[in-house]
């Protein structure tokens, strides 16, 4: 039987797809964010500043969710600040929910920086062997994902709820204004290339171009989150979650180019980061948006070049093992090229890209 879900980060890629999925499955859904979406049928928006304990307590007063899904974070200038801010958000949320005693399960979405390290040390030093597996130990460095996990573990010990940790790879899903949004970023980049005649050049490293990798569709992640919340064998477990296929960017780049009717530029052996390629593209995007009467004229709202560069510029091959989920019964699969194509169609339909 469907429960009552509190989805924290409802305006982001993960949260937006999750609230829609849970509503389709009959859950009662509360969507929490600083500016929660108010246009999703059946989802009750809850505005809260998770850094303000009083704001959180006031926003959640009277709510008795059975399940909590945490898919939010705030990027800071240093990892020490990432730890301070993002652990506090989880702690403030779970402290505010504690008195009601209604929560039976808390799911936390983190990611592969659990294995790769935080932005300050991303993909450097001594890393665990690939494919990444959930039983590999934490890196011996500070990481805000670890701090968030520890807040969940401490609250679970105090309040007696079960938990699950979900570690997706790069997430493909629709959201505007999101800090980590490769799909929409690449759609904007392809549009700029098509409209200006610039080369559609893979912006990453030779290792990423030639090596195997995988990704996570936000819709599949939503199903995985519900599965873990409703499967007793998944209680108190950490899980990797990816689509189930592997690919090389040397193959995928041609597929993306075809969708936009582009001819990809030959890969020169090392790509030019998108932050450099798009450094002058703000006025160009504004002109494109005016020409096609698009909904968003600000390139900075749509593209997160820094994050896409971090993923595509990694000097190591990254693939993820899903055996743990498979053995417990989660058998969902999603072809990653179709994930991109489905994503590209939505901003076109909503006049984000022409």
Structure description:
The protein is α/β, with parallel strands linked by helices. It has helices spanning 13-24, 53-60, 79-97, 113-116, 144-159, 182-196, 206-210, 218-230, 249-259, 274-277, 281-292, 299-302, 305-312, 323-327, 336-349; strands spanning 4-8, 28-33, 43-47, 67-70, 105-109, 162-168, 171-172, 212-213, 216-217, 237-241, 247-248. Strand 1 (4-8), helix 1 (13-24) and strand 2 (28-33) form a beta-alpha-beta unit. The radius of gyration is 20 Å and the shape is globular.
Q: What keywords describe this structure?
A:
globular; alpha/beta; 11 strands; seven-stranded parallel β-sheet; about 350 residues
- As a whole number of angstroms, the C-alpha radius of gyration is 20 Å
Number of strands: 11
What coarse outline follows from CA principal-axis ratios? globular
Q: What is the percentage of strand-forming residues?
A: 5-15%
Order of SSEs: EHEEHEHEHHEEHHEEHEEHHHHHHH
- What low-confidence regions span 5 or more consecutive residues with pLDDT below 50? none
Helix content: 40-55%
| Annotation field: number of helices | 15
The major sheet is characterized as: 7 strands, parallel
Distance between the termini: 42 Å
Structure classification: alpha/beta
Lateral strand order in the biggest sheet: 3-2-1-4-5-6-10
Mean pLDDT: 94
Provide a brief overview of the structure.
With 354 residues, this protein is of the alpha/beta class. The chain has 15 helices and 11 strands.
SSE layout:
Layout: E1 4-8, H1 13-24, E2 28-33, E3 43-47, H2 53-60, E4 67-70, H3 79-97, E5 105-109, H4 113-116, H5 144-159, E6 162-168, E7 171-172, H6 182-196, H7 206-210, E8 212-213, E9 216-217, H8 218-230, E10 237-241, E11 247-248, H9 249-259, H10 274-277, H11 281-292, H12 299-302, H13 305-312, H14 323-327, H15 336-349
Parallel strand pairs: 1-2, 1-4, 2-3, 4-5, 5-6, 6-10, 7-9
Antiparallel strand pairs: 8-11
Helix pairs in contact: 1-8, 2-3, 3-5, 6-11
């Amino acid at each position: 039987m469907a429960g009552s879900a509190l989805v924290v980060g409802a305006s982001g890629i993960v949260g937006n797809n999750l609230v829609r999925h849970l509503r389709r499955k009959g859950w009662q859904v509360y969507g929490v964010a600083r500016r929660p979406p108010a246009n999703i049928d059946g989802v009750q928006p809850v505005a809260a500043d998770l850094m303000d304990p009083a704001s959180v307590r006031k926003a959640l007063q009277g709510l008795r969710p059975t399940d909590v899904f945490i898919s939010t974070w705030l990027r800071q200038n240093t990892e020490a600040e990432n730890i301070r801010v993002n652990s506090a958000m989880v702690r403030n949320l779970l402290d505010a929910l504690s008195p009601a005693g209604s929560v039976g399960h808390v799911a936390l979405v983190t990611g592969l920086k659990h294995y790769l390290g935080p932005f300050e040390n991303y993909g450097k030093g001594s890393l665990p062997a690939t494919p990444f597996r959930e039983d590999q130990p934490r890196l011996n460095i500070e990481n805000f994902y670890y701090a968030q996990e520890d807040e969940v573990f401490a609250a679970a010990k105090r309040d007696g709820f079960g938990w699950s940790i979900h570690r997706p790879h790069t997430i493909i899903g629709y959201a505007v204004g999101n800090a980590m949004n490769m799909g929409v970023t690449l759609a904007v980049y392809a549009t700029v290339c098509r409209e200006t005649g610039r080369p559609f050049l893979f912006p990453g490293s030779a290792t990423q171009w030639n090596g195997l990798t995988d990704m996570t569709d936000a819709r599949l992640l939503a199903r995985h989150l519900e599965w873990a919340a409703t499967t007793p064998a998944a209680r108190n477990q950490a899980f990797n979650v990816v689509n189930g296929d592997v690919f090389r960017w040397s193959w995928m780049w041609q597929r993306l180019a075809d969708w936009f009717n582009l001819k990809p530029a030959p890969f020169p052996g090392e790509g030019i980061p998108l932050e450099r390629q798009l450094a002058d593209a703000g006025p160009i995007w504004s002109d494109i948006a005016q020409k096609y009467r698009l909904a968003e004229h600000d390139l900075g709202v749509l593209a997160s070049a820094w994050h896409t560069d971090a993923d595509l510029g990694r000097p190591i091959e990254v693939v993820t093992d899903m055996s743990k989920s498979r053995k417990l019964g989660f058998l969902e699969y999603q072809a990653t090229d179709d994930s991109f194509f489905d994503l590209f169609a939505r901003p076109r339909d909503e006049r984000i890209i022409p």
